[in-house]
Amino acid sequence: xxxxxxxxxRRPAITSPFEQMDKGNGKNQQNRLCLLASLSAFFxxxxxxxxxxVLGGRTGGGDESSTVRLQSNPPVVVESxxxxxxxxxxxxxxxxxxxxxxxxxxxxHVTEQQQQQPKTFPFMRALRTVQNKTxxxxxxxxYVHDLPSRFNDDMLKExxxxxxxxxxCKFTTNAxxxxxxxxxxxxxxxxxxxxxxxxxxxxxxxxxxxxYDCLTNDSSLAAAIFVPFYAGFDIARYLWGYNISRRDAxxxxxxxxxxxxxxxxxxxxxxxFLVAGRITWDFRRLSxxxxxxxxxxxxLPAAKNMSMLVVESSPWNANxxxxxxxxxxxxxxxxxxxxxxxxxxxxERKYLFSFAGAPRPGNPKSIRGQIIDQCRGSELGKLLECDxxxxxxxxxxxxxxxxxxxxxxxxxxxxxxxxxxAFDSMLAGCIPVFFHPGSAYxxxxxxxxxxxxTYSVFIPEDDIRLRNGSIEERxxxxxxxxxxxxxxxxxxxxxxLIYADPRSKxxxxxxxxxxxxxxxxxKVTRLRKNIIEGRTEYDNFVEENSWKxxxxxxxxxxxxxxxxDPFFSKPKGESAGDxxxxxxxxxxxxxxxxxxxxxx
Length: 600
Hints:
- By secondary structure, this protein is an alpha/beta fold.
- The protein is built from 22 helices and 12 strands.
- This is Exostosin GT47 domain-containing protein.
């Protein structure tokens, strides 16, 4: 009875119907008080059950921060502070639908630590391979697309269609090196020399890639992705006598195939590269006019993201890069390279300078005619005329023999900026003389030193064209000891200017293929790091000044005025030579005609 009175004193603020009945009726008071106590106890048990079982289960064991997951919303973090339950005035249990409604208006709370977490990118795994010191291929993996055969091998099966004048079938043999050259006159080595077509890089490069020591089938590890499309062979089939739809068909087909691949979506193709063994102008048709030259591969939006390696690049575009023309020498062993270099050092060179080439009477800006005149009029010069009546100019043996006998080899522009002859001459240990920076210095920045004075001589075209400067006098002023140093530098460059036998691999030397692949990897790696850091490689990048950026010194981020600006002041749509895209067509035709004469 005393205990019951204590219970009623603990709830003075609550007036229940049962208490009013007790005052009005003294009978059965003890039973009613027992009922009241039971209901009160039941109420508190229900309240404690709600706090510790229902809410406690949602907080995951009573943590201070609870995670509430809705079916329609992602997880959100809610700060909750639940004190030890203390009896308070409670009218009724809140209905559960109201709890759900309260949860829906909660906004996510982003902590400072979450804000500082770095963004993740799909190429992060490839970048992390560099950190694995036990992986010799870390940061060097290449993934090769398995293209349908119509983009490569089928062209070789139809090799007779690759040239209008020349049967290219023999030049695609031996992994693209062509038939072996006989060393009848003792000009070559006994092994490693082939009659290689100057436009055969497509096949040579793809076959060298098969021997690359860090290929991977996992594209997420790749530092770069190779597209084995024979772009040069494709356009060579249709340069003459075909409409623009036919010329563009394979390029459009390729881009369509690539853009459907998951590898493309990682960087929209900016980690992809391909090789075309022709000059860039063959892939830069400026209009949809049927009479315009080439196809529009390099103007396709998707192709602009890729890196295209060509034997001559455009100084005004950022998506192509120059790689060396193939020479006749494709060593299979390091010893072959060492032996050739030693031989070039010991040669007696009886000519101060030499030139192998033909005049360009139809091009008023060409200085070839003046160069030929100076060679004829000098007792220290040697000329190998490459007109239609002179077959020796198209004989690898005759050309290499003249270069091996000369201290300097003249390399003026032809129909376009570049010449295969420049690489043949350096292979012979002959110091090249250039008359336009676009012939080498802005072209092959991956393979040639930035300081061009260490291995070559530069004589501006205007010194010959306008001032009739004497080449003999200019070269004679170079001290013999300086000539010796320059020749040694040229000979040391030989390994990185040649393509090793695609069926083997050099052990200590890096050939032209190795240098190009590493340059692509470095380019893609820089791009990926810049994306992560939210920065660009250059400030105020201007694509029409693309030729300048590779010449910048370490730390420079903007290309300003350059002494070579006058050489590249032509409008973007113009080519070299006579300043029109038509000169590209003539260069291509002449090159294939040369191969025809060489075959005869």
